[in-house]
Specification:
Length: about 120
């Protein structure tokens, strides 16, 4: 590789999915401004960007990321995606009835069939 050119690798990670739209992996000249951007797939949320070599050059929870100057070393940028929250629940509620719903996480929802009213008849 010619002097002053360094590799930039781009990866995705996490429990969700999405696309790292920039930067594109490849070879960059030291000093080139590298900007990050990511788009989460439906059902996923963007978690963070991390760009590291022997030190951290970018760490952000902003999907449109940020930018850094390509250092004089190889760098790996990772976009992390998480599973998104389930869709909101909507149901009619009688006037004057207090309603409290608690989401316990995806694992707790396995085998879920329906919400029940513990105060029915009270």
């Amino acid at each position: 590789m010619p002097a002053g050119l360094f590799n930039l690798s781009v990866m995705t990670a996490g429990t969700g999915s999405g696309v790292a739209t920039s930067p594109s992996g490849g070879t960059y000249t030291s000093g080139t401004t590298i900007s990050t951007n990511a788009i989460a797939d439906p059902g996923s949320t963007f978690g963070s960007w991390s760009c590291v070599g022997t030190t951290s050059y970018l760490s952000t929870s902003n999907a449109t990321g940020g930018s850094f100057s390509m250092p004089s070393e190889n760098v790996t940028c990772t976009a992390t995606f998480n599973l998104g929250a389930p869709p909101p629940v909507s149901a009619p509620v009688d006037s004057g009835l207090a309603l409290s719903l608690t989401f316990l996480g995806i694992a707790a929802m396995v085998g879920f069939k329906k919400w029940r009213n513990r105060n029915a008849g009270h």
